[in-house]
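A reminder from the course coordinator: this example appears on the midterm review sheet, so study it carefully.

Given structure:
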């Protein structure tokens, strides 16, 4: 898997480096109507006319007790091997605006994780230890027609896992890579999980100081940003 970056406040970047993975309930993002970058009423959901209620618009089938953390991920066409030990990262012009908007409420830094495989491996290891269902993948962005077609299907053949990793094409400049955990209704989180399970949870795993660095977002955007093995 190619490198990923997280744009957030320095406090949260350092928390993640130390091994504290903070995940938000997908419902949180559905309710961020004023945030055009993070808000998505169909996050981990698809439109549906299966049920009808008075004064309710944007009917949807959604996941419950699903928590996600999102990163920007470089694609093969955004990278170039400059030598046997150095890779250049080239941020797509269409994604620069989205990343800058994410940074408006931060100190202007980002966490670059250059060994995504190892990061995911440590996360999965901790989840498995506490028997927590976890997922990870790049987000698939689908066109409006395909997305809208879900409305007319009573019970679409789409799994909870696919719901987490499917978004509308409008968000494609974000090039999201997600990690997620999910519980069935009635399950109680184990002691690796924070108290407030309705809004967010924390998964504590091995730190990632050895496979990541905090850098200026502007440095990453000023291409190429060089990563050395």
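Designed residues:
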């Amino acid at each position: 898997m190619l490198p990923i970056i997280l744009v957030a406040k320095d406090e949260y970047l350092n928390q993640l480096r130390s091994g504290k993975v903070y995940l938000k309930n997908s419902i949180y993002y559905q309710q961020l109507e004023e945030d055009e970058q993070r808000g998505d009423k169909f996050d981990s959901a698809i439109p549906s006319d299966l049920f009808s209620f008075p004064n309710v618009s944007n009917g949807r089938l959604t996941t419950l007790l699903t928590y996600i953390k999102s990163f920007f991920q470089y694609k093969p066409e955004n990278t170039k091997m400059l030598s046997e030990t150095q890779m250049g990262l080239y941020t797509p012009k269409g994604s620069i605006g989205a990343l800058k908007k994410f940074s408006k409420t931060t100190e202007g830094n980002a966490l670059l994780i250059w060994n995504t495989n190892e990061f995911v491996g440590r996360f999965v290891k901790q989840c498995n230890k506490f028997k927590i269902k976890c997922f990870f993948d790049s987000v698939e962005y689908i066109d409006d027609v395909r997305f809208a077609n879900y409305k007319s299907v009573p019970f679409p053949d789409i799994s909870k896992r696919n719901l987490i990793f499917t978004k509308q094409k409008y968000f494609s400049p974000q090039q999201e890579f997600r990690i997620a955990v999910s519980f069935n209704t009635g399950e109680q989180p184990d002691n690796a999980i924070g108290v407030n399970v309705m809004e967010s949870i924390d998964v504590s795993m091995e730190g990632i100081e050895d496979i990541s660095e905090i850098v200026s977002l502007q440095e990453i955007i000023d291409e190429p940003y060089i990563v050395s093995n």
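Residues 4-228 form one domain. The chain has one domain: 4-228.
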